[in-house]
Amino acid sequence: MRNLKTILVVILAFTPFVNAEEPKEPWVNLPAKFASKLPECDRIEVFLLSGGVQDDGGDGTFPIRPYKKFSKIEKKQDLRNEEAKKFCATWRSLTFDMWSQAACHFPIYGLRFYEGDKLQFETSVCFGCSNFYFPRAGGGTSWHGFNKNDEAGKALISSLSEIIPRPEMVKKREQGVGGQPAK
Q: What is the pTM of this model?
């Protein structure tokens, strides 16, 4: 029994150090550096994606890492300096909530956030299911949701739609009009 108590004391003593990771967003293990604490970026690449996924990558595609697949790039627009900083502020203001997401992920936008030449964060965004992916510490990726119906979520949708407008067909699909999107 004494050995068990000793082991328990050692485990409890070292637990804060083992779990002393980077700050997380509420509800899940979303690192804050991909959400409310996203670093300042001076360039963001915004991609309009096809909404479907395919097995083959290469030029003209954007990775959808959790699926180990790719989406065809339809258009690309770069944001720089003040535009990039403004977009980062919009991203940081989102209500990150894993319970807001569904489970479809038909990506319509791909995003790459840069500071200088250093890639800070890459993700794809689906407005149909209100989610995006992020890299996990130690490898792999996970999904996380955001509230697309509050002021911040609507601001993100509006901002991306101004940068590269979504086709009308995609807007209807996101609203559940006309059936589920095809892969």
A: 0.79
- Give me the sign of the Cα torsion angle 15, 19, 20, 24: negative
Indicate the SS3 state at residue 76: strand
First to last CA, the chain: 58
| 55 contacts: CB under 8 Å, gap ≥ 6 | 69, 70
The SS3 of residue 134 is strand
> What is the rounded distance in angstroms from the CA atom of residue 71 to the CA atom of residue 94?
24
pLDDT digits (tens, 9 = 90+) for 87-114: 999 999 999 987 767 678 888 999 999 9
16's CB contacts (< 8 A; 6+ apart) are none
- Report yes or no: 125 and 100 within 8 Å, Cβ to Cβ: no
Work out the average pLDDT over 8-28: 46
* Encoded amino acid at 62, one letter: F
